[in-house]
Structures are given as structure tokens and as C-alpha cells.
Amino acid sequence: MFSRQAAPLIGLDISSSSVKLVELGQDRSGNLTLERCGIEPLERGWISDGNIEKFDEVVEATRRLVSRAGSKTKNVAMALPASVVISKKIILPGGLSEREMEVQVESEANQYIPFSLDEVALDFCVVGPSATSAGDVDVVIAASRKEKVEDRQGLAEAVGLTSVVMDVESYAARLAASRVIERLPGSGTDALIALFEIGAMTSAMQVLRNDDLVYERDQVFGGAQLTQMLVRQYGFTHEEAETKKRAGELPDDYGATVLQPYVESLAQEVERALKFFFTSTPHNRVDYILLAGGTAALPGLTDAVTRHTSFPCQVVNPFDGMEVGRGVREKKALREAPSYLTACGLAMRRFLR
To answer: Which ranges carry the SHS2 domain (predicted)?
Structure first.
């Protein structure tokens, strides 16, 4: 009765095409509740390669999103793209004090980070006992240029929020995906999972087994290619094509002329990415393919991916198994659910001890 609830926290995912917000709660049994979620589109070029190019415009878009979601929470978890973060797993002696571990981490970091440590935001996390070195522990270190972190913190501050967690997008996506994997047959134990987050310009592929990252690679394909096909086929401007794509207001021949060829090309890109994984590692198969991102829910995509790869494929719903709060438009949230994978993982940081 007297246990403390974790302080409220918003997960805020800033990508090249939109800002996404998720806020989660928890009932007395520990089950998660989706309290709020929302997406605000961003114009092309406002975010480029993870950099905020149009600061004021992104601030205004984020402010609109927070206002529309109706959240009173001020603390926010944000993330940096994996491309601007250097991550490394190292082995350290067990039993070190926190200060001793900090000294060791800084010493190790000097070997991997091509900048002065004065220019870098550095953090570490003890994963657990080392599987290869008895008595030692596995530690993940993560570092990024301070200016990258300060850009995100400055954005939150300009919106009236306080950044209390700075994560890595791929880590947050894995955290949210872990709930989905647990609902697979056998709770996904020992299964090799290929997770594709299909973004606007690039798609992030992560291959997971249990809690371990086996492989990761970014691919240059995404939802923006569908927009470009609409522009070429119908003479829309880029903005018109994006608006009509989101609203579903497309010509009658869209399915046969644009959608089907795009779905086939996307499935071929997934197949190509998996083949590269197989030739780069000892593996020659995966057990499941999970698709996330706004493009993931396109009609026929999972069937096309299974046809091209021969592996079962499904769309990720990070809200699966959650109660839905009164402040959420349930049908809309479920329709857009694949887009919220990273934002959901960020919001889940509230419940990590």
C-alpha cells in the first residue's frame, strides 16, 4: 500500500518525419496502461541525419503534440540516433565500487572514442555477470558528442519539459520489442528475431536472441520512397503526397499502380538485408521477422516479406497486452501502433529500477 509509484515520464521520439509521444501508467498488478500517445508530422529537412536543422519549427511541432496529448507530465525521456552514439561492451572485474567502475570505464573509453573525453557525454550500464570471464561483469559504455545531447535537452527545455533520460533509439526500440517477443510462442526464448524499423529515409535492422543483440545494420530504404513514387505517378508536390498518404486520399488505381510495386520492392530490400546478415555471420535463418515504423502496416507487406524470405513475419504492436486509457483514441492508436516502438520504449524507462 505504501510502495512508491515511479514518477510520471513522457517518451518523446524525434525522427526525420515526425515527433511521437507516449505516456504509460501501471496498475496495482504491474500491468502497463497506455495513458497518452500522439504523432506530429515534421516537414522534410527539419531533421537531417539526426540533427535538428530547424530548431524553432521542431519546438513548435513538439509543443503542439504535447498540448494535444493533454499531458501534464514535465519529465521526458528522449533518444539519440545510434549513428551518433559509440557503444561498446567491455568486461570489468566484479565487485568494483561505483567510483572505481567510473575510473575504469573512462580508461577503457579512451581506446574507443576518437574525441577528447571533455567533449563527450559518457555513460555506462552493468549488464550482468560475464559469460566468458568468471567473476567479471559485462558493462556497456555509450558515448556521444555533448552538443548532440545538448541539442535534444535544449529542445525539451524550449517546449517546457525536462529531459531526465537520454537513451539510444535502438536500445529503446529493443526494450519495447521485448514485450512483443515475450508474447511469441515459447515466450521467444532462444528465437532469432530480425527486427526492422522502417523509417522515412533509412531502416534500422537489429537481430536479437533473448536479451542479446546479435547484429545490427542500417539500410537505405524507407517510407519516403513511397512518397516519391506518388509524386512521379500523379504529379503531386512532396507535401501533397505526404498529406494524401497519411489521410488515405489516393486515386483509385493507387493500389495496383503504386502500392503493390512498392510493397514488392520493400520486401526485396528486407530479403537483401537478411542475405547480408547470413553472409556476414554464422547464421543462415531467423525464426521471426518483426516490422515496425509507419510503413510496416501497409497492406500485403507481411505476406510479401514471408514470400520473399520464407520466414514468418508480423507487424509490431508495442501496445499489445496494455490497457488503453480514457485519453486515447483506441482505434487510431492501434492503427498507428507500429510507429510508436521507440517512443514506447522510452516511456517504459519510467518503470526500470
So the answer is: 9-177
pLDDT in tens, 59-77: 999 999 999 999 999 999 9
Q: Which residue's entry shows cell 507487406?
A: 301
Longest dimension (CA), the chain: 66
- DSSP reduced 3-state for 352: coil
Of residues 264, 234, 270, 228, the one with CA closest to residue 251: 234
Backbone angles phi, psi at 106, to 5 degrees: -60, -40
Q: 162-168 and 32-41: which strand pairing?
A: unpaired
| Angstrom distance (rounded) from CA 340 to CA 54 | 23
- What number of other Cβ atoms are within 10 A of residue 310's Cβ? 9
All residues at 6 or more sequence positions from 18 whose CB lies less than 8 Å from its CB, including other chains = 39, 40, 41, 42, 294, 339
CA torsion, ordered 175, 180, 186, 191, to nearest 10 deg: -60
